[in-house]
Give the backbone structure.
Amino acid sequence: MSSTSTDPSLANRKSIVWVYLSGAMAVTFIVMLFLPDSGTGSTTLSLYTAMLWCGLFGTALWRYFNKSGWVGFAIGSALGMAIQIVAQLT
């Protein structure tokens, strides 16, 4: 007999914890885009990380508000790409 115990706040996909976690990661990579010599400002990887984490944040946020996660991911990814482009211009 195996019993698995999971934290109820993490088992619920609509939990605010996921919004905070993905938002913190998105903010981390966005801040690193604007810091000089942080290692993420000029590479192609920076575009993917900004798009990924902003997309995951959008997914978590949209699911929290009972909306489609795919729409949230698309909007978040587009914002992540726009932020990365602005970071390259500054």
About this structure: The chain has a mean pLDDT of 81. Residues 41-89 form one domain. The first helix runs from residue 8 to 11. Residues 33 and 43 are 10 Å apart (CA to CA).
